[in-house]
Amino acid sequence: MAWTLINEAIMADEVLLYDQGGTDLGRASHAAALALARERGCDLVQDEVFSSPPRCRLVPAGDAGRLHAARKARIAAGGPPKEIRVTTAMGVHDVETRRRQAAALLARGHAVKLTARLAKAERANPVKARALLEALARDLSDEGRVERKPFGESGALALVLAPRD
After folding, report:
1. Which of helix, strand or coil describes residue 151?
2. Residue 2 has pLDDT above 50, yes or no
3. Which is it for strands 42-46 and 112-117: parallel, antiparallel or unpaired?
4. Among the CATH numbers 3.30.110.10, 3.60.15.10, 3.40.50.2300, 3.30.460.10, which is that of 80-163?
5. Where in the chain is the domain with CATH 3.10.20.80?
6. pLDDT per position as a tens digit, 78-98
7. In sequence order, what are the beta bridge partners of 29?
């Protein structure tokens, strides 16, 4: 992201709100989200510009600029996320190997994109693939945090994990 929108600069009427720990607080109007941020002594920061409604999170007051600079530096240093592919047909040991690979990449400071390839029969209802990605994200919660929740892309589901700050 090339810029960070903070508090009143956010133009959306409705936002997806997350607290400082990454807990999903659901949809809220911009005014309600801003009021909650002020009540908690935080800034409201827009994380995703191109989603509708945009994803916003609560950040301790004054930390938004520092966090944005750190994120830009991490992205510049690490480049795009490293991709690890899994399928729902994989065995337990294969999935465990991918989990260890992702943990090692996160420990070195790289963002990781976990991609679950979908068979044609799964594309209509990718429940197993979503469950697999969410289980991997839970297992990797000590090493990284979910930066982007599962999203679909050409015959696959993917989610992005960022290293813990």
Report:
1. strand
2. no
3. unpaired
4. 3.30.110.10
5. 5-70
6. 668 889 999 888 899 999 999
7. 14
Q: Which residues of 36-67 are buried (b: 16+ CB within 10 A; e: fewer)?
A: bbeeeebbbbbbeeeeebbbbbbbeeeebeeb
Record the tokens describing residue 66, joined without a space.
Answer: 């520092």
What's the pTM value of the predicted model, to 2 decimals?
A: 0.54
The size of the chain, in residues, is: 165
Rg of the chain over Cα atoms, rounded to whole angstroms, equals 17
Percent of all residues in the chain with a pLDDT value above 70, rounded to a whole number: 87
Six-digit token string for 73 = 């530096």
With contact defined as beta carbons under 8 Å apart, do 138 and 110 qualify? Answer: no
Give the CA distances from residue 147 to residues 112, 119, 151, 164, in Å, rounded to whole numbers and listed in that order: 10, 25, 12, 10
Per CATH, the architecture of 5-70 is what?
Roll (3.10)
